[in-house]
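testing teh design pipeline on a random one, pls ignore if ur not involved
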C-alpha cells in the first residue's frame, strides 16, 4: 500500500489535472518531489520544492525557477532567457501533467 503523505496547499488551488492534461498550477507535483534542476539548486530530492510559489492573483502555483530565476539561481541578467529555455526543457514544462499521485482531500 502506498504511503500517505499530507500536503499543505492553498485551499483555492486548482484540482490536480489528469496525467497528460495541461498543467493548471495545482502544485501537487512540486510539493511531492523536487525536479532535477531543483535538486541541484536546493540539494533535496523530495518536496516541497523551495521554489514553488503561490500566486494570490492567479490562484495557482508557479515554478519559481522559471518565473523568477534570478531569485533562486544567481546569474547575469542577460542570460535569463537562455536559463528559462533550458529549465523549461529540463522540467518538460508544457508537456502536460506527469504526476500520478492519488489524492484524498481533508474534510472541511
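output:
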Amino acid at each position: 500500500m502506498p504511503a500517505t503523505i499530507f500536503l499543505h496547499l492553498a485551499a483555492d488551488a486548482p484540482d490536480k489535472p489528469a496525467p497528460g492534461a495541461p498543467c493548471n498550477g495545482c502544485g501537487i507535483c512540486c510539493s511531492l518531489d523536487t525536479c532535477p534542476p531543483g535538486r541541484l539548486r536546493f540539494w533535496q530530492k523530495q518536496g516541497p520544492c523551495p521554489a514553488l510559489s503561490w500566486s494570490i492573483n492567479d490562484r495557482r502555483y508557479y515554478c519559481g525557477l522559471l518565473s523568477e530565476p534570478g531569485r533562486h539561481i544567481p546569474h547575469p541578467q542577460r542570460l535569463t532567457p537562455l536559463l528559462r529555455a533550458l529549465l523549461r526543457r529540463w522540467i518538460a514544462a508544457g508537456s502536460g501533467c506527469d504526476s500520478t499521485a492519488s489524492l484524498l482531500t481533508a474534510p472541511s
